[in-house]
Amino acid sequence: MKIATAAYPLDVLSSWAHYEDKLAGWVATAAASGAELLVFPEYGAMELATLAGLDVAGNLEASLFAVSDRLADADATHQKLAAEYGVHIVAASGPAVTDAAPRPVNRARLITPSGQIGVQDKQIMTRFEREVWGVVGGEPLRIFETALGKISILICYDSEFPLLGRALADCDIIAVPSVTEALAGYWRVRIGSMARALENQCVTAMSSCVGPADWSDALGDSYGAGGIFCPPDVGFPSTGVLAAAEINVPGWTFAEVDIAQISRVRADGVVLNRNHWEDQFGRDATAINVPLM
After folding, report:
1. Which DSSP helix (H) or strand (E) runs through 207?
2. Per its UniProt entry, which superkingdom is the organism in (predicted)?
């Protein structure tokens, strides 16, 4: 199958029709290139706050709830497009207010052509999210069994934690929606995505917000690119990179992925990182300090 990951610029939306037309254009472009799984970025849904006015969009607290109020309608639009084009879509994440959490969570949704919606919340908050914005960790990690294979989502910072990746060891593809305000952040998430592909012997698909969003105190300028990564093993590129776009160039990044090859590498790769994970146990105590002075 073909995966498409977005380098997605955020806009000031003039109307709901503006949003629908924008999203429809992005999905149509990816589908025309044969993509079956489309991955939008972390906090890409924040542009929905502009529908409530720039004063709301520019207010950290108010913007959280303005976006949450629009997520159900956004999901309905994604459902229509997923059905029309026969694609699976990881919708851009956004703050969601739930009864289960005292504060909004950062929520992505996987939407299938049949209209089903799988929900994945971010697990570990960045400093900005926890210290300034008050966004909290949400519901547990999930693996979604789909017609394309087993798909999971690690939202941005979550991709930098190996135990979260290990919880998804049974999945074929991990989507990594991201937004980062500097090149260092982009590379942290990219390195994390590549590490999770190595450890799990799976494919990771990283998307990014790109460009300015001066109307938002939460986002500002974003630096990133689409990228699709794999284990550097038999049948995959020796670099571990199936595709990687130039930084901050809006558009889709595409790669063909053979799910059967993931199974083959897991069973008979040059190395078997996924199978040998438990060999660390008992060897992962604090290292012995050996003075050599």
Report:
1. strand 203-209
2. Bacteria
